[in-house]
Amino acid sequence: MRAIMTRKDSGAETDATQTTRSALVALAGHIKNLVTDQTLDSRCASKLVKRLKKEVDAVEKRSSGTKAGRKNLPKKFEDLDATLCDQGATLLVVANASLRANDASDAARERAPGTTPYRYSPQLRSSCE
If DSSP codes are grouped into helix, strand and coil, which group holds residue 57? Predict the structure, then answer.
């Protein structure tokens, strides 16, 4: 019978990483640009950032680095978080505008000649309960 090796059994140290601070800064910058250009969905970007933050923790544990490098990485992720927040707000505004447009078209349809507008009826509500 063949033994199956899992990640935990592989003998590799879990905190060991080959990732560098400069690579994480570059990735954060690329993700920010893609979200800003609306070529990467903000929900996908959020998942990537969540994973990258775990990698940042591993890199921070592994090495001390320079003072400028230690400051640059959190700043880059703060900028990325702000961009994701802005993109989320933009998507919310667009969705709200779409809902309002649908409501307006429904109201116009109710006012159109030959249509019967929906009217609230207490009897209808009690029959649904």
Answer: helix
